[in-house]
Design a protein that fits this description.
Elements: H1 3-22, H2 30-40, E1 52-57, H3 62-69, E2 76-79, H4 94-98, H5 111-124, H6 127-130, E3 135-141, H7 146-161, E4 167-174, H8 189-192, E5 197-202, H9 207-214, H10 242-264, H11 269-283, H12 287-295
Amino acid sequence: MGLKKRRVLILTLLVASFCHLTVQAQTITEKEFQAIRQVALNIPEKCAPGECLIIGVGRSPTPFIAYLQALSENYAFNLPLTAFRHFPDSAPVQSLVHNFEDQSRLLPLSPALEVKLFRHFADMIPLEIVGKMKAIVMVDQSDTGLSLLAAASYYRKFLNQKNLAVDMRVVGIGNHDDQAKLLRNSETLQFQARFIGADELSVGRSKTLSSNLVVEHYDDFSQFGEFKIEKHNSPQRGSGKYESLKADLNKWNALDAESSQLKGSVNRPSLFEKLRAQILKAFRCDAALKSKAIEN
């Protein structure tokens, strides 16, 4: 096949891919997808499908859990839990606790609320699945790590009550390199001993993903609404956009895989990148175009 025909063939295939997959995207841009994938794929390094379970605490980790759910069945779960700061015994890092505005939110739950919380845990993540796992990784977007450690501490107590010997690790996703300080603070080393590890992942240089996490943009796409243990008997209903988010993540994933295959078949990568850039410019549904479409 001549070079000119090869160019036409590649261009045609790419146009078809972008028309079918890209233009239909409604929830995220390509840059967002790449940033979400980069963070999400670092979590399985700590948690292998089939041996480990990933639990996203609250609504903040919504895009990462949505991405991971496509990797393997019963691998990642969303756990609705809003503004949770209670610890079953003592909270870590007294300097941070001392500055916390509402000290009552750090105290252990009452026996009745603990029973309610443990019932919520069992409802959201089936015990028959948890019991088959060697480890659990709890994930949350975190500035200090306090909510993540509080949720993990109570889930650890829940597992002990159920006589389930499952290792636990906590992973805080920070907006910047200096965030999630609590997870690295030397004062928490003894507290963290109850877990097999505490790690931080950074969203890196993605300004879009970082700002979206700060303004809680992805809360609107969460599978569930709020669940405040003192207020709600069950999770509030989500907006219904979660499945659309998952579908768009899968579309971008398929597009990325197809692009990689096409790139491998071309002898001149620079040609591929040039064509890809031209088609992206022509067909990408960026945020501005989406906003206009939604308004209309």
